Please model this.
Amino acid sequence: MSNRVIICEASEIITNGLHEIIQGMAGFDVVMRLDSPENLSEKLLVSDANILIINPLLLGFNCQSMVSQWVKENPQLVRIALVTVYTDESALKGFDGIIGINDSKLKIINKLNQIAQSTDKNEKPDDVELSKREIDVLVAVAKGLMNKEIADQMNISIHTVISHRKNITRKTGIKSVSGLTVYALLNNLIDENEVYK
Model:
């Protein structure tokens, strides 16, 4: 599976250079280039990116809280700090790796390949794959049904529905109903006109 990368950096020169390096690598694809972290959580979800390269300076004082929020929303997301000036170590705590402004092309390629290999080893395909019942529950949630309605429709207890929903959240890393709806749409589990408006 190819690694889907988002680059978030204000400097177009730096972004272009990094984009050029990454696009030349096998198994990597830059799916989005952003000059600010505005609405980044939604963009991560929609793009299905698994690697985020971001300049911590763009996050300002909220750096640590924003990074920990992404961890909660996207447990599989690899976060790489793009360091262009001296940055306090405390601001880099939540990141999985660092690319420095003075790193050579070879060094950047090696770092990204190492990070990709370590995430491949950590991924358990069985954990990521939803069961048939979990897909049924996910579709029902995306259609706007409440837990009790899902339980009645599937002839199972509310506790079982809640358990399925917890597993769906753990496997997909998505907590919100709107996020699960987008996931269901992107994976062709439901049609757009089936979504509860």
Remarks:
- Residues 105-122 form the longest helix (18 residues).
- Confidence is low (pLDDT under 50) at residues 121-127.
- The domain at 127-194 is CATH 1.10.10.10 (Arc Repressor Mutant, subunit A).
- The CA atoms of residues 69 and 99 lie 21 Å apart.
